[in-house]
Amino acid sequence: MSLQQDIPDELPSWDFAEDVLGGFDQFLDVSSFSQVNEGTSAVRREQAPAAAEPAGPSVSDADELEPARASRPSSSRDPDGKKQRQNRQAQQRFRQRQRARTESLEAQVALTAAQVLELQASQRQLEARNALLESVASNLTSDVQEASVAEADWSQLPASDRDQQRTVVLSVTGGEGLVRTVQDISRMPFTELVSLYTIAQQSGSTSDLMEELHKWTSEVSAMLVFLAVGNLKNYLTFTSSRLDGNIGPSVSQLPDTYYRDFVTRLHLTEAQRIDLMHLRRLFYAKMGALKRERKQLLQQVPAGAAQSTLEASTRLADITAIAQQLHDNSAAEFRTYMQFGSAFRRGILTLMQQAVCIVKGFPYIPDKSRILEILAHQRSEMPILVLSHPLGIDDFEHHTNWQLVVNYLKMITKENLHLYLPLTSPS
């Protein structure tokens, strides 16, 4: 058999590096196999003109082809191409396993990332919920009857952080007087506050001139206002304590007989009594409306854990909005307390009656809500529990009715502060 018969006219092409090593590039250095591919390509280029010649290849041609034949498989060794098919199938199975593993890892990473985001969102939700519940905890435990915060003229309250530097001159201490800011008074120790109030009470008890009484009562009221605005907790402690240092009941423990005697000392006119009862009705109706509004907001707080990241994000936004509304509700409640106290003391009571509250009430600061309840009992008025319910009137109308008190406070000026200003129109 001749050499020409052993070598087919067209040798099959097999790219070793591409077919066998496909998919293994990241694990192997295939640069060494490139020389084999280049040698194979050179042999094919040299074979092309030899196939066109009528005569068979020369001995020198056969000698050159021999290394090439030895360096690659021939069709005679694998006539059915079975080895190639097996190699390609092995490559395909490897690529499939590699692709499946990659997709599995990517899915695990995506799932873990989603779980982390959901946990973060849940944590933010819980933190917001805790902050929300803490911010309204005092409101949930407060009773609508607690009106001792209402001690101030709301028109004089600081409206911003800059106003925290507003000052009051306490001339009752003698000399040029003490200049104190809201922050100064809010940070005063209890004993220093008691000392200042005691000095003011003693000064008022010896004042005869109307101008001195006006100045004295204004300074005492300003001091209480600054304390309420700057440190409400200290204010409540101060106004509910006995102020002479002796052992005795607190303000809340004083019997009704104390308040009946105190009402007698005020010498209220019938017009003042009518106005005080009207103020009482408006005040507790307003407070009842605010309390119902707060209860509705708390019922809107989402309960339970979020089921997805999207739900957690939505809940967080809802809770943030509810927290802001609860904050506004608390601010409205505080304003109502303050407006009530201002209308009671600075509008309906005269300057002399204000002085009686300070001098004759010492060593206590009488609770205005208790005074109103003594008057209400004497006049057979409705109890607080009834007044704080809608009574057939929607909350919007209760808020509108309270606006009458807000407008009433605008009528109070330094010029008429010593007078009784009617809250209701004379009949």
Describe this structure in words.
By secondary structure, the protein is mainly alpha-helical. It contains 16 helices and 2 strands. It is 63% helix and 2% strand. It has helices at residues 3-6, 16-19, 34-52, 59-71, 82-141, 182-186, 190-205, 210-230, 232-239, 256-266, 270-299, 309-348, 351-359, 368-378, 384-387, 395-409; strands at 167-170, 178-181. The protein is elongated and about 130 Å long.
Mean pLDDT: 74
Low-confidence stretches: 1-5, 26-37, 47-68, 136-160
Percent of residues in helices comes to 55-70%
Q: Based on helices, strands and strand pairing, what is the structural class?
A: mainly alpha
Radius of gyration over C-alpha positions, nearest whole angstrom: 47 Å
The 3D shape can be described as elongated
Order of helices and strands: HHHHHEEHHHHHHHHHHH
Strand line-up of the largest beta sheet: 1-2
Q: In what range is the share of β-strand residues?
A: under 5%
Oligomeric status: single chain
- Helix tally equals 16
Q: Give the biggest beta sheet.
A: 2 strands, antiparallel
Number of strands: 2
Features:
mainly alpha, single chain, 427 residues, two-stranded antiparallel sheet, elongated, disordered N terminus
Short description:
The chain has helices at 3-6, 16-19, 34-52, 59-71, 82-141, 182-186, 190-205, 210-230, 232-239, 256-266, 270-299, 309-348, 351-359, 368-378, 384-387, 395-409; strands at residues 167-170, 178-181.
